[in-house]
Specification:
By secondary structure, the chain is α+β, with helices and mostly antiparallel strands. Among the domains are: 133 residues; 69 residues; 211 residues, 3-Layer(aba) Sandwich (Restriction Endonuclease). It contains 26 helices and 10 strands. A 5-stranded mixed β-sheet has the order 6-7-8-9-10, with helices on both faces. Strands 3-5-4 form a 3-stranded antiparallel β-sheet. β9, α23 and β10 form a beta-alpha-beta unit. The N and C termini lie far apart (74 Å).
Length: 595
Amino acid sequence: MHKPWSISTTIRNPLRLQNFLSILEEFEEQPFDEQTQVTYQIALIRARFYKPMHIPSKYQYYFDESNDALPMNVAEEIFNCQEYKDPPMRGRQSVNPLNKLGFCVARKSVKVIEITELGRQFLAGYDVGQVFFKSMLKIQFPNPWSDDFSSEHGFNIMPFVAVLHLLHRLNKLPTAKGLNQTEFSLFIPTLINAKRIDQQIEHILEFRQTANKESFIQNFAQKFYKEKKLAQKKITNLFDYGDNIMRYFRLTRYFRLTSDPLGQNWRINIEPARQEDVKQLLALYDGTALDFDSPNDYLSYLSDITKPELPWEQHENLTKIALSVREIIFELVKHENLTLKQNESVLLQQDLTMLSNAQLQQYIEKLRVLNVQLREYADKIKYMHDVEYIQTLIQVLNQPKVLNKYEPENFEKLITDVLRIINDELRIQPNYPTDDIGQPISHASGNKPDIEFYYQSFEGICEVTLNTSKLQWVVEGQPIMRHLRSFEDKTKKESFCLFVAPKIHNDTYSQYWIAVKYEYDGKRQKIVPLTTAQVALILETLLKCIARGKRLCHRDLQQLYQEVVESTKMLAGFSNWVAYIPTILTHWQQKVLVA
């Protein structure tokens, strides 16, 4: 019987593994025996990085509306309430993806828990694309550390490389490029041997030509699993695995994903800006698993940050990549009729023969950053006068039910686009990791503001959330005030925090009211809470300005933010503030339009 491969379905968002690894770090140098496995899982509950299914009602408060520390004895009681048949197994399951990805070595058979160098880079906030690229290259089936995907079950694959091979070959055929969500979910988890890539491509082409897709999926799954009567759950699992694999692969930046704003109906292909990198990688590896003489050899491989060997560690190959990315930028500049700044022109004219390998790598990263910046600028120019597009944004912002279906990173991107379209910013800087065209591959990490904005006369941060529950104030209260204070300490300009959510809870307004009217850690703050519908009104003001042949400028926005903040001085309580903000917006719009 065959079974599909997967990376980990324990956590849907791969970046949450950083939380799991941070807790494991507390146990480093301890044996990963049954007791440690249980204690580790309890520690995850204590940190609220893992929420069990069954929580006693008397403790639900900790997960729904409290920012109080969860006592260890309470976490242990919650763990025991689950009545697991094999309690240590929960700890093993939680650490399994960390082992598989090469972030740690935590096995009962190994002397003590070890965080690898790759894991330390992940914890330190090193470039997430590079971390997951190295990680994905290390995953292979079979390997000496896992009995799950053995050669006896037909496995012989380095999944990341094999999928690149499949897409590379598929793209050469006169058919649709890349794979849609269904194709990826059906044919990637079931690709268990790299020597069968061409056979899998034949299945893909056959599927595309088949009228009855459901019947094909059923028959294909039955043949793969070698079962005549197949439970529907096994087919459903393929789609769960496909979504999971896509999320991990996309973090490497070697794949481009296109989807609707809800993150659904996606299509995936090789990232065009990485074509030269992929070409070199595929020439070095055919996608079959590497051979290891012993588990210790594989352990050494996992722990070595320099492995596996990369073809572009040679100067000639690095030069080819640099030239490839540079050519993509030249084509973009020509196609969008962009004017380069002097420093950008100097960067593109760099003499590559004078650069060392390390300098070439840094140069390539600068080119990739420039590529994203130029694309974002081209989009701003395209959309800032696009009335139809602005109307679409307004429609979306006014529909909380639609917004609540958004992926968090897509909501952050939506608000980023809104801020860029409104007026004459110097820079709008989202802190979510992006692919090579500026599309978010995950949401911003918790230790940074979601978005930073810079204008000629003021600066600030923007924090966004889709959380509209009574827990909103817990998640978005103190952390945001800390982010703003940190930002205030770094700038000499007037600093604001714009907080945006489909609906703002009264407890959240109350938190911000105190910080704005009185103080946070000794000083008043300038926090502007706006619902998405109120942000939509700003865009409506922009449309009316465009109709009058004018634009909003940054001082218009600054005036609005100042009025929201200053109004607290004349109001008696936060509920009055909540009621008065719409009036401020209406008066502000009128003043802008008659100016």
